[in-house]
Amino acid sequence: MYLQNNLINVKDLQNLQSFANLKKIDLSENQLDSLPSGNVLAGLKSLQFFYLHNNNISKWQDLQSLTSLPAIMHITLHSNPVCAIAGYRHFIVNSLPSLKALDHFVITDEERIEDASFGYRFRGLNEYMKLHIPDYLNEKSAEQHLFNLEVDVYRLKRIFERNSPSILI
Known about the structure:
Elements: E1 24-26, H1 38-42, E2 49-51, H2 60-66, E3 74-76, H3 88-95, E4 101-102, E5 105-106, H4 109-112, H5 142-162, H6 165-168
Parallel strand pairs: 1-2, 2-3, 3-4
Antiparallel strand pairs: 4-5
């Protein structure tokens, strides 16, 4: 579901739980100032990618509602006021066990394991962990979108696996 640049507000999202098979939602650049409750997001049982960057999300409670997403792999929240809150990344990374990437970076073992240090290559927010977020807005067919989504899942998992000492061991 690609809904970026549509001036959507939180009231427009109250029936999202009806889309239990949805795998990707792009709500970037909509001037959202809050997110639906955890009850609404919990209904998105298949959601893997949730793009929320370039909005006006500013409340800590909105981050907590994201913890209701059961299958989420990648969330983007960069360029929202909430990202300036101390502990933003730490909270998201450690509250969503299925999450593999946040914003432009794959999550590392060092970010999940308290006091772990595996060297620069495995450190969070470094170039090895940088993730390209493709724009599929110009794709014509649903089949191509689904194929691209599976490619994104594959790439994300491979980057995570190649840069995880616990998996490598």
